[in-house]
Amino acid sequence: MKFKKNDMVTVEIKDMGHDGEGIGKAEGYTLFIKDAVIGDLVEAKVMKAGKNYGYARLMQVLKPSKDRVEPKCSCARACGGCQLQALSYEKQLEFKEKKVRGNLERIGGFSDLEIEKVIGMEHPWRYRNKAQYPVGKDKDGKIITGFYAGRTHSIIPNQDCLLGAEINETILEKVIAYMEENHVAPYDETTGRGLVRHVLIRCGYQTGEIMVCLIVNGRKLPAAEKLTDSLREIPGMTSISLNVNTKRNNVILGEEVINLWGQAFITDAIGEVKYQISPLSFYQVNPIQTEKLYDTALEFAGLTGKETVWDLYCGIGTISLFLAKKAKQVYGVEIVPPAIADARKNAALNGIENAEFYVGKAEEVLPEKYEQEGISADVIVVDPPR
């Protein structure tokens, strides 16, 4: 081992790891350095030194990479959400393309692959239609919301994430004001006491409808009408609810939703297909890129209206229903029963009659339907859980 903890080293960043950390060598010893980007020359402090490699903290950039940019967000280094903000967007896309290729070659054993260029965004900000903010207290006892620092459950205060909708900040201000005025305590992971754990916000990209769901350690919210009255002042507010999670674990959402005001869902659309989205629904968080993705899948599928399509891991039917208008028949498979219930509702909402949905494992349902009913597939779309 060439170095020990707290040693200062100068490193040129030659590569980037799977989590966006810079990788370089000091005297032949490999170091992983968060917030450094490929091409940087940096000064770093060794924080953990193993036999073959170690981890170091970026102290200063001695010579910036030509691809380094100033992060827009003031919390970029502290927050665990955006690992690549100091890298130009064009290079971010190249990094992701290289990551896909590397995984296919190293893990999949493929070689000589022709991989399409990553399709990026024109404006890669303010695109997320969903945000989940943990709620807690700072060292002075003040209620805060924000995001966790990387690999911790320490909240970095931030009510205006630049990836989310601008209205999120107003919503969080109203939630915190309600909590302070009505002495509602945030949940404390260490003691299991307190009420409000997270604030979930969803915004319909095409419809402008807004959902606010408080994840709570109980089944009641004191003076709930004061919160709903305040949130209803926001244009587009459509659904306000509680999600009950009384378990002492790190899972954000519980299974029960209690509606406080308005509908139990919001409606949004991808292309011409409408979807009802509940607090528990899986729905793609980047609507702009989702439509590009589905259009690309539709192009690759080459549907003429005569094909049978299977959508494996279909969720609430987003891809299934998008393809159904161009296919003869679509079958969706998903292991989560509430998601299949949502998929069937969404099919009815759009008047789509050539889509059927099944609860079960894809590897069991697909061969079973083929053996028992002779249902084969002309096209299979796979969007498995990561």
TrEMBL record:
Positions annotated to bind S-adenosyl-L-methionine: 284, 313, 334, 383
Any one GO molecular function term: rRNA (uridine-C5-)-methyltransferase activity
Keyword Oxidoreductase in annotation: no
EC numbers for this chain: 2.1.1.190
Top-level division of the source organism's lineage: Bacteria
InterPro entries associated with the record: Methyltranfer_dom, NA-bd_OB-fold, SAM-dependent_MTases_sf, TRAM_dom, U5_MeTrfase_fam
Residue ranges annotated for the TRAM domain, each copy included: 2-60
Assigned keywords, A-Z: Methyltransferase, S-adenosyl-L-methionine, Transferase
Gene Ontology terms: biological process: rRNA base methylation
Assigned protein family: Belongs to the class I-like SAM-binding methyltransferase superfamily. RNA M5U methyltransferase family.
Record's protein name: 23S rRNA (Uracil(1939)-C(5))-methyltransferase RlmD
Protein source organism: Candidatus Blautia merdavium
This protein's encoding gene: rlmD
